[in-house]
Every structure is written in C-alpha cells, then in structure tokens.
Amino acid sequence: MPQTLNYLKETPSQTAGPYVHIGLAPGAAGFDIYAQELGHDIAGPNAKGERIRVEGGVIDGMGSPIKDVLLEAWQANADGIYAHPEHLGEVEDGFRGWGRVFPDFETGNWTFETVKPGAVTDLNGRQMAPHISLWIVARGINVGLQTRLYFSDEAAANATDPVLNLIEWERRRATLIAERTDSDGTPVYRFDIKLQGEDETVFFDI
Amino acid sequence: MKPGPYYQRDRQWQPPALTPDYKTSVSRSPQYSMISLETTVSEITGPVFGHNDIDPIDNDLLLNYAKPGESPIGERIILHGRVLDEDAKPVPNTLVEIWQANAGGRYRHKKDTYLAPIDPNFGGCGRTLTDENGYYAFRTVKPGAYPWRNWVNNWRPAHVHISIFGSAFAQRLITQCYFEGDPLIARCPIVNAIPDRDAVDQLVARLDLNATIPLDTIAYKFDIVLRGRRSTLFENRPEGN
After folding, report:
1. Which of A102, A205, B148, B237 is 20 to 30 A (C-alpha) from A31?
2. Which of residues 78-97 of A touch B (CB under 8 A)?
3. Which residue from B minimizes the CA distance to A84?
C-alpha cells in the first residue's frame, strides 16, 4: 500500500429547498427575527460609481420562472477592488460587494440595486471585464450554480475577457451579457438565467 | 509560499445536477456541461462578516423567537462541530446559518401549508460565526420529519439546513445535516442524489454524549468540510506564453 494522502472530503451539497428564505432572508419568508438581515445592501451608501439596477428571472426547463429561488451576488467596487483581505486596495466604507436577491414569490421576478463594478485585474495580471458573480440555489438544484453577469455596454472589454473567451461557442457567451435598457434615468440591466434549453445560461465549475 | 487556487470540487463526490428520483431536479438541472474555470480573484475572494453583523442570541433557537419565559416544544438539542477545509485546517470567523422545521415538521414560511402547527415560540433560523478554531454551536429543537410532494408518500428525514461561506466565493456551500439512526435517510431521494454512501454518511450527525448537558440538552456533532487550497510552490506559466 502506498502512503495515504489524508485529505478530508468536501461536505456534499444538498438542495437549499423551497424554504431557503427562512434561513437567509426571514423577512421574505414572512417573519421578523434578526436585528439586521444580511445582504440587503450590496454597495452601501458611500460607494462611488454608477448606480444601476439589475432585473431578471431564473427560468426552468419548462419555460416557467422559478419562484422559490435565492441568488447571491459578489462583485468588486467601481475601481475593480473586492472587499476582501486578499485583494489589495481600498474599498469605500460600507462597501461589501455582496448581497442576497430573492424574487417576488408570485411572479419569480427579482431585482437588485448596486453600483456597476469596474474591470478587475486577476492575480496573473490579466484584465477581466466588469462582472458580477452570481450563485443560484433553489429547490431542485443539488449544488448551487455559479455564473457571471457581464454588461452589454462593455463590448470591447467583454471581447477580450479571459473567462468569456473560455466559452468555445460564441453564441453561448451572449447568455452572460445583461442587456442595458434604461428607464426613468436609471441604468437598468436585464439578466434572465435559463437553466435549460437552446439559450441555456453558461454555468461555471469553479 | 503563498495560498493559490482552490482544489477543484470533486464532482463524483458531489451530487450531479440531474437526479430524476428527485423530480424537481429534472427541469432545474442544466443540460450542457459546465465550463471549468480555474479560480480567479473573483472566486478566491468572498464576503467577510464580523460580530457587528449578528447578535449573540442568534445561535440560540430555543430563545431567539420565544416569548419571554417560554420555549419551543420539542427535544432540546445542541448542534455543534467544526468547519474545516480539505487540509483539515480550521476555518475561523466564517458565517454559519441554519434553518429548519419545528418539532412537528412545520416550517415558518408563508408557502408551507403542512397540517402540523406553527410553534409560536420557534422561528426556525439561526446564525453564528465560527471561533478561531473553526468551532460553532447552536441550541435548537430536533426538527420533525415531514411529507413532501415527490412520490405520493415521501417523507423527509429530520434535517437542519446549513449554509456556510468560508473565506472565498468558491467555498460557498449549502447542505443538510441529518441525525444518526433515522430510517428515513436511506429512503430519501434528496439524500440519494449523492452517489457515494461514504459521502452520505458525512451528512449524518452523531450523538455526542460528551457534549450533552445532563438533564438539559442532548448534543449532536456535525463537522463541515469546505474546499481546501493549493500553496503556490511554483509559479504557473500563464497560458499562451
């Protein structure tokens, strides 16, 4: 017998189930319990940069909106800096860059407000186009799905983004681009996430 | 030597997306292959939480929703353990959140309509930060089994949902903790989405009499393992150079 490696195994994932909101957003589940719920304000009051709204839905293989979904967003600030000790640089006081998004339980539509992130320099020095990482959990999803939202008005940066360029099929890259459709003077980006079908969103095994 | 990319997730240990016996997965499982992405700075970072974000009472489900002087009905338990990574290193100061049904198997959610009553003294959620050794603890009641619509007669084993952050978005994990000795575990299509029996065993909390408080609260121990990461001994040659 050769030596053993003695690594532990990652705990297996299980679905978040239909009542994930009890744990992660109890207000949405219908009750008040915590002095403060986490993840309601992604950018905080002091963040610089363009204030934007993202609207979307998560659509199942039957074409129906998933009404019990929960998403988490993770993003850099307008300078492309993450609020994390391993990313060098300063973020604004109150900027966390993380938030929770849940839909209207009747329609499945969700929306969140934040600032548009800047381009991010990766550890190897390569530039990534502005993007928001999204993590999606719901009943029927055994392991949370990871994807990225890019911006339609960043065509030049998107064209050289190393992650978008990992996707061999050019037409599938379009599934990660949120379309800008301004309304009432606020920049609004539409991002529908399709779990199946011809326009299935690209998901990453990170 | 500096910390590098996270170990890749073992997709033969984790449940696949499509598990037809768990019917809802059929229309909610992506059909194209995922794109493999070596962790970039966007995935080796993640939100940081501190003691300002939560209250000390948040990890005590016997008290955090109960009226003064009252407590929820059910078997009083301590659910505790450590959050480690695959290298067995503790993951300190990480946010652990739980949610569960009450002792009768009913969730406090406006979409749950099961017959069993809501417990006026039980909210059903809690949260805490691991300490410097990765240790966490909750006090709660043991949740009840409940029926769900999958096959005509499916019952979920008693379980507590657990959400863990780690220190990177790549480590983000939601799982469920089951309890030793429950005959429903082996029959559950959600549990059986996991192909490996040893992996299923990793989700079953053990009775822990050493941590039990005599005449008061029975303890179960549940350790959680998040992805580990490589140390960069040698610089990677960037692709294309």
Report:
1. B148
2. 82-87, 96-97
3. B45
State the smallest CA–CA distance between residue A181 and chain B in angstroms.
26
Identify the CA nearest to A131 among candidates A187, A191, A46. Answer: A191
Nearest CB to A142; choose among B17, B27, B167: B17
Going along A61-129, which residue ranges are E strands? 70-75, 98-101, 110-115, 120-121, 127-128
Q: What's at B67, amino acid-wise?
A: K
Asked whether the beta carbons of residue A142 and residue B37 sit closer than 8 angstroms, the reply is: no
Among B143, B133, B132, which residue's Cα sits nearest to residue B61? B143
pTM of the model: 0.96
If you measure CA to CA, which chain B residue comes closest to A134?
B169
Please check whether residue B130 touches A, CB under 8 A: no
pLDDT digits (tens, 9 = 90+) for B32-45: 999 999 999 999 99
> Nearest CB to B110: which of A29, A85, A138?
A29
So what's the pLDDT on residue A182?
Answer: 85
pLDDT digits (tens, 9 = 90+) for B214-235: 999 999 999 999 999 998 766 6
* Cβ proximity of B72 and B104 under 8 Å: no
Residues 6+ apart with CB under 8 A from A11: B173, B175, B202, B203, B224, B225, B226
The answer to whether residue A122 scores a pLDDT higher than 80 is yes
Residue of B nearest to A17 (CA): B161
Q: Which of residues 74-93 of B touch A (CB under 8 A)?
A: 84-88
The pLDDT of A126-154, averaged and rounded, is: 98
Q: Using one digit for the tens of pLDDT, what is the confidence trace for B57-78?
A: 999 999 999 999 999 999 999 9
Give the β-pairing of B204-207 and B173-179.
parallel
